[in-house]
From TrEMBL, chain A:
Its main location: membrane. It is a multi-pass membrane protein. It comes from Natronococcus amylolyticus DSM 10524. This is NAD(P)H-quinone oxidoreductase subunit 2. One of its GO terms (cellular component) is membrane. The chain crosses the membrane at residues 6-28, 40-61, 88-108, 120-137, 143-162, 174-196, 216-241, 253-273, 285-307, 319-338, 344-370, 391-410, 430-451, 472-493. Residues 137-437 form the NADH:quinone oxidoreductase/Mrp antiporter transmembrane domain. Keywords: Membrane, Transmembrane, Transmembrane helix. It is found in: Membrane. The keyword Ligase does not apply.
Automatic annotation (TrEMBL), chain B:
The lineage of its organism: Archaea, Methanobacteriati, Methanobacteriota, Stenosarchaea group, Halobacteria. Residues 110-123 have a biased composition (Polar residues). It comes from Natronococcus amylolyticus DSM 10524. Keywords: Membrane, Transmembrane, Transmembrane helix. The chain crosses the membrane at residues 12-31, 75-97. It comes from the Archaea. This is NADH dehydrogenase-like complex subunit J2. Residues 108-142 are annotated as: Disordered.
UniProtKB/TrEMBL annotation, chain C:
This is NADH-ubiquinone oxidoreductase chain 4L. PANTHER family: NADH-UBIQUINONE OXIDOREDUCTASE CHAIN 4L, NADH-UBIQUINONE OXIDOREDUCTASE SUBUNIT ND4L. GO terms for cellular component: NADH dehydrogenase complex. InterPro entries: NADH_UbQ_OxRdtase_chain4L/K, NUOK/Mnh_C1-like. One of its GO terms (molecular function) is oxidoreductase activity, acting on NAD(P)H. The chain crosses the membrane at residues 6-24, 31-55, 61-85. It is a multi-pass membrane protein. The keyword Magnesium does not apply. Belongs to the complex I subunit 4L family. Keywords: Membrane, Transmembrane, Transmembrane helix, Transport, Ubiquinone. It comes from Natronococcus amylolyticus DSM 10524.
Length: 509, 142, 101
């Protein structure tokens, strides 16, 4: 089929392209410090992330990471199993790079007058590299280092508006909670190492049988690992940084964190719990079924996120809480795993994270547009924006209804798969019925506040005395592109679903 | 004012009870774990330092196979990743620490006075308490 | 000369709890940073002790990486605290309240 065979390490190409772009930005910055050539910087970033996206999609289609038995080219293990490139890794690399590209294009206008252009884009690319590496990491060592690589630039990105008190406060809170949760995470790693003697995920699974006496230690370690994942995915109990960090951060950065960073957090959770802690042997050692923890976390997270979102007046804060709610939906992917299956829930969670990557990025970019216009932050300030900017507001309508899960938009289908998956998993674990019910109730609640924003924009009378609004090219392009992706996700939902299900099957087996 | 550390009692210590309780729980778990009496340890006559070096750069051929040393995992990719992380940390720390004058960043490591530094805050370890006694100074009070 | 592994684990757990205690009770951002550092080093003690216990070097090498990462984290943390001080004239983490916690 292929004319020439690429070496094994080439399977990492998406991550390598991202890091090369970051280094290229460093070079541009060192040749011409304080350059204000935004087209060059944003262009380099966008081209780099689109190239990574293209390569990731090409690899997925070409069958890299599909087991040879299924007609693919086999799962690529690199560096002695420290990294692994399978369908799940490529799937999440796709999510990360598409969000990065959207955010880079949108930042062109948003960060217009900012003093640190090159640094902003290079930090974003480094964070994207970290997230792409998280997708491929296959050892607690690489997972932890990649997680730090994704987190450290994010702290700086949130507080990059150094004279803005909100931005600094958001960055501080993000950093404090992040540092605490990474300390807890690394302590959890040390306990898992103590119980099994290994950090590579397959080796941990192989040594679980011998870990019989260390049940308590291993259980405590797993609990602490869950804390680290909860921070990265903004779920309970480490969710409370999210509203402040998202509200204070520049809106494109908030879009980046709430979509790409969340997806990357989920991929490590999926990989650790499917590869290192397979359900039956782990339950035999620690005495508790770990899906129980995720069932509780999923219900609490989605309920808390949606109820808090419904009470907000500030649009960005509402979106922040809604992103916590969506983390709860994606947690169903782990809650619904059972000893003899669970591909459907996990595949559905992966689909949801992909669709969520488009629609949530788009929604935050609309907030970025509103901040660019300077119209204000509350629902009332958004009243009647459709008179002046119908195209962007139409896109906003698509994002909101897709987030709420209105058929036939992409968000509906991924939630539908989550729901059917949860119902199916209920045969093995009846608690999943509660999860499925919570999913439906919460989606209904979420419709209230998503519709409220659409109503403000389209139905309410415009605020009097508002100037004509500019039409920044980059932001508009990114929003429209995100809207197109959200809609196009429909006809291609079949292949997406197949890819996600296949990836989940490979990951679980 | 420099003081020795003082134990402050009162309401601010209440959340600390959580930490103490956590220690109790963790210690219970550790004491109930059936650890083996003997540590496996490292075999005599090998250099742990060079073994760490081999593990760091994936020199599996050189790695000793005595005892359980052979189970050590390769770390080359982690080494490369940490290099990128330190790049990122340097970049981020510089962005945050630079000062601007009129919207333009000035060199963070410049030893030349930029002229207008006299008008800004003089450096002071107590935080340059320009509003004097109206504010309690120093970190020990918090 | 042969200290049982339990003592190492108890020591690291104590350090971890001391760090957590500091985070829960202190309001100074620098104290917060030091407390986090204590918690990370508690994990390092565990890693090195378990490396000896299991007889492989994975834990020792990982501890080296954790130290490097902790240093990187502190670099960024100090940067953020510096910016915090320039904006709020204080390093108390409860002072910035333009948004609710």
């Amino acid at each position: 089929m292929a004319v020439f065979e690429l070496p094994d390490w080439a399977a990492l190409a998406p991550a390598l392209i991202l890091v090369a772009t970051a280094l290229a930005l460093f070079v541009i910055d060192s040749i011409n410090p304080h350059t204000k050539n935004r087209s060059l910087l944003a262009g380099t970033t966008a081209v780099g992330s689109l190239a990574a996206l293209g390569v990731a999609v090409w690899f997925m289609v070409a069958g890299v990471g599909t087991p040879t038995a299924a007609g693919g080219r086999g799962v690529v293990e690199l560096f002695g199993g420290q990294l692994v490139v399978d369908q799940m890794a490529l799937f999440f690399m796709t999510v990360v790079s598409v969000v990065t590209a959207l955010v880079a294009v949108a930042s062109y206008d948003y960060m217009g007058d900012h003093a640190y252009q090159a640094e902003y884009y290079s930090l974003m690319m480094l964070a994207a590299t970290g997230m792409a590496t998280m997708a491929a990491a296959n050892s607690l060592v690489t997972i932890f280092i990649a997680l730090e690589l994704a987190s450290l630039p994010s702290y700086a990105l949130v507080s990059i508006l150094k004279d803005n008190r909100g931005s600094v406060e958001g960055g501080l809170k993000y950093f404090l909670i992040g540092a605490l949760s990474s300390a807890i995470f690394v302590y959890g790693i040390s306990l898992v190492y103590g119980a099994t003697g290994h950090l590579q995920l397959e080796a941990i699974a192989d040594n679980l049988q011998g870990a019989g006496e260390y049940g308590g230690l291993l259980g405590l370690g797993i609990l602490m690992l869950i804390g680290g994942f909860a921070f990265k995915t903004a779920s309970v109990p480490f969710h409370f940084w999210a509203p402040d960090a998202y509200e204070g951060a520049p809106a494109p950065v908030a879009a980046f964190l709430s979509s790409a960073s969340k997806a990357a957090g989920f991929v490590i959770a999926f990989r650790v719990f499917t590869t290192a802690f397979p359900l039956e042997p782990t339950t035999a050692v620690i005495g508790v079924d770990w899906t129980l923890a995720f069932i509780i976390l999923a219900i609490v997270t989605m309920t808390l996120g949606n109820f808090a979102a419904a009470t907000q007046d500030n649009v960005k804060r509402m979106l922040a809480y809604s992103s916590i709610g969506h983390a709860g939906y994606a947690l169903i992917g782990l809650a619904g795993l059972s000893a003899d299956g669970g591909e459907i829930v996990m595949g559905a969670a992966m689909m949801h994270l992909l669709v969520y990557g488009f629609m949530n990025t788009g929604a935050f970019l609309f907030v970025a547009l509103a901040e660019y216009w300077g119209v204000g932050r509350t629902f009332e300030d958004y009243n009647g924006l459709s008179n002046q900017a119908p195209v962007a507001c139409f896109a906003l309508g698509i994002f909101m209804f897709s987030l709420a899960g209105i058929p036939p938009l992409g968000g509906f289908w991924s939630k539908y798969f989550l729901f059917t998956g949860a119902i199916q998993a209920a045969t093995a674990n009846s608690a999943m019925l509660i999860v499925a019910a919570a999913l439906v109730v919460n989606s209904a609640i979420s419709l209230y506040y998503y519709a409220r924003l659409v109503k403000a924009v389209w139905i309410e009378d415009p605020v009097s005395g508002r100037d004509t609004l500019a039409q920044p090219t980059g932001l508009y392009a990114a929003i429209i592109f995100a809207a197109v992706l959200t809609v196009v996700a429909l006809p291609v939902f079949g292949p997406i679903a197949d890819a996600a299900l296949e990836a989940a099957t490979v990951a679980i087996s | 004012m420099t003081n020795g550390p003082q134990l402050r009692l009162g309401e601010s210590l209440l959340p600390g009870i959580l930490a103490v309780a956590l220690f109790g729980v963790m210690a219970m778990i550790a004491l109930n774990t059936g650890f083996a009496d003997e540590m496996v340890g490292f075999p005599e006559g090998i250099s742990v330092t060079s073994e760490i070096g081999y593990a760091l750069f994936d020199f599996t051929a050189l790695q000793s196979t005595e005892g359980s040393i052979g189970n050590t995992e390769p770390f080359l990719v982690s080494f490369l990743l940490v290099a990128v992380v330190l790049d990122a940390a340097l970049d981020a720390a510089l962005v945050l620490a630079k000062r601007e004058t009129e919207g333009k960043p000035i060199a963070a490591l410049s030893s030349v006075s930029t002229g207008d530094s006299a008008s800004t805050q003089p450096a002071a370890t107590d935080g340059g308490a320009e509003d004097g006694s109206s504010r309690s100074s120093g970190g020990e009070q918090r | 000369m042969n200290v049982p592994i339990e003592y190492f684990v108890l020591l690291s757990m104590a350090l971890f709890s001391i760090g957590l205690f500091g985070i829960l009770t202190r309001r100074n951002a620098l104290m917060f940073l030091m407390s986090v550092e204590i918690m990370v080093n508690a994990a390092n003690i565990n890693l090195i002790a378990f490396a000896l216990y299991h007889g492989n070097l994975t834990g020792q090498v990982f501890a080296l990486f954790v130290m490097a990462l902790a240093a990187a984290e502190v670099a960024i943390g100090l940067g953020i605290i510096l910016v915090l001080y320039r904006n709020f004239r204080d390093v108390d983490v409860t002072v910035p309240t333009t948004m609710r916690w």
